[in-house]
Amino acid sequence: MEDAQTTFAEVKEKVMAFAREREWEQFHAPKNLSMALAAEAAELMEHFLWVSSEESRNVSADPAKRAKIAEELADVIIYALEFANATGLDAARSIEAKMAANAQKYPVEKARGRAVKYTEL
Amino acid sequence: MEDAQTTFAEVKEKVMAFAREREWEQFHAPKNLSMALAAEAAELMEHFLWVSSEESRNVSADPAKRAKIAEELADVIIYALEFANATGLDAARSIEAKMAANAQKYPVEKARGRAVKYTEL
Amino acid sequence: MEDAQTTFAEVKEKVMAFAREREWEQFHAPKNLSMALAAEAAELMEHFLWVSSEESRNVSADPAKRAKIAEELADVIIYALEFANATGLDAARSIEAKMAANAQKYPVEKARGRAVKYTEL
Amino acid sequence: MEDAQTTFAEVKEKVMAFAREREWEQFHAPKNLSMALAAEAAELMEHFLWVSSEESRNVSADPAKRAKIAEELADVIIYALEFANATGLDAARSIEAKMAANAQKYPVEKARGRAVKYTEL
Questions:
Q1: Where residue D115 falls among pLDDT bands split at 50, 70, 90?
Q2: Does one domain contain both C54 and C9?
Q3: Which of C53, C55, C57, C106 to mutate to test the interface with B (most CBs of B within 10 A)?
Q4: Could you list the mean pLDDT of each consecutive 10-residue stretch along chain B, which spans 121 residues?
Q5: Looking at the partner chain, which of A2, A80, A103 has a beta carbon nearest the beta carbon of B80?
Q6: Are residues D46 and D16 in the same domain?
Q7: Shared domain check, B101 and B76
Q8: Which residues of C touch D63 (CB under 8 A)?
Q9: What is the pTM for the complete model shown?
Q10: Reported confidence tier of residue A69, pLDDT bands at 50, 70, 90
Q11: Structure confidence at residue C97 (pLDDT)
């Protein structure tokens, strides 16, 4: 699978099949999945605790570290899409709606080069 | 956009364009994005703090709550894909590799109906 | 040390001395400490991903698991107090102020037996 | 209350009384408290998403921001100590044991000035 050809629906199906085969749907309540997702996001973050933001841009230089980070990112997206499965949400549609809202909240002219909350623009 | 037709690459491009237009790439170091991702995952989780796992399955019943949850899920995936952009990772390829590893760690026969770590199977 | 006799100041001093001896203060910027704290909180949470809320009350039954959980809780408080050190905050004073505010937001009569946000009381 | 005089036991009692008065113990299962703790840690972290580690050291300069951060830190410690209440753990004793283990894992000579995991020292 590659990003260029892979749809969200394809991954959602694979993830659901994986859980179903193992009879894990009983554990995959939205509450539990939201916890697992947050836990995996924290594991991804742990790779960057003590480096500066600038240093974190060079993470790709070390192949072993890069492979670990790819695994944590995969875990995050897997749980996010299993959460979508468990709640019947369409991820792409939700993203489209959220990005439209964000475009309203952060108009290009006002937000350019500024990392502040929209309420402070 | 809908899950059935939307590829990861499409969303990655939209997310990157959104940041670039606002000159936000200077803020989008992997360290910072991993924090934003973890923070959004926590916001999603906050909707489920005090309900039981079983109750969390009925979240869809309340449309206002469902809309909020869809927004938080969107934020999580947006930051995950912007993280992929910032690190040059292919999300779908990473997921495929991780799911293959998971299938080894959790063989169907051993893992069926059991929510324990693979080291305890 | 035991809760009955140990003050916040005592633990703050021990934690600061530990970091100072190792010349770790250079890494202990508030940003980094807030990440480490969130990461440790997530590790504590990982012990409860797939059990129900009710089952989680019996965690003490398994001594090995209990010991692990005690370690994670310790890590959380250690980083919280090192964060207080790094920012010059008085933890107890902050807690007192926050509990007074919470008492206003959640009056006993209205909040009794209800796990909803104060804006919905 | 101030750090210099306040014991962990005092705060644990106040936090427990607050919950008991409101009949919230039914919601305060360890699973739920671990989620609330992680969510509050994420809120603390949100104040530092887009600043550099160095910039985060000057957070005290802005009194309004400092007050917000003190509130989030208070929430973290409140939930950590309510978690200790719910699980019957002694926080100070757990911290003492964990710091002794950390001193073994990170000997001063080897760990000085280095922010790497003990397995890499």
A1: confident
A2: yes
A3: C53
A4: 98 98 96 98 97 92 94 98 97 98 95 87 82
A5: A80
A6: yes
A7: no
A8: none
A9: 0.97
A10: very high
A11: 98
CATH of the domain at D28: 1.10.287.1080
CA distance C38 to A46: 9
Domain count, chain D: 2
CA distance B82 to chain D (A): 15
- pLDDT, tens digit, 9 for 90 and up, residues C38-86: 999 999 999 999 999 999 999 878 999 999 999 999 999 999 999 999 9
Measured CA distances, A40 to A91, C69, D67 (Å): 19, 18, 30
Q: Do B45 and D35 touch (CB under 8 A)?
A: yes
Ramachandran class of B113: left when φ > 0, alpha when ψ lies in -120 to 50, beta otherwise: left
My answer on whether A84 and A29 are in the same domain is: yes
Question: Domain check: are D26 and D69 in the same one?
Answer: yes
Q: Tens digits of per-residue pLDDT, D8-43?
A: 999 999 999 999 999 999 999 999 999 999 999 999
The Cα–Cα gap between A90 and D115 comes to 41
Residue B15 sits in the same domain as residue B60: yes
- The half-sphere exposure of B49 on its side-chain side, counting CA atoms within 13 A, is 21
- Residue C113 Cα distances to B110, C6, C107, C109, C120, angstroms: 42, 32, 12, 9, 14
Residues B112 and B82 in one domain: no
A102: containing domain: 91-121
Instruction: Please name the member of B27, B39, B45 whose beta carbon is closest to the beta carbon of D46.
Output: B39
Residues in chain B with CB shorter than 8 Å from the CB of C117 are none
In this structure, the answer to whether residues D99 and D119 fall within a common structural domain is: yes
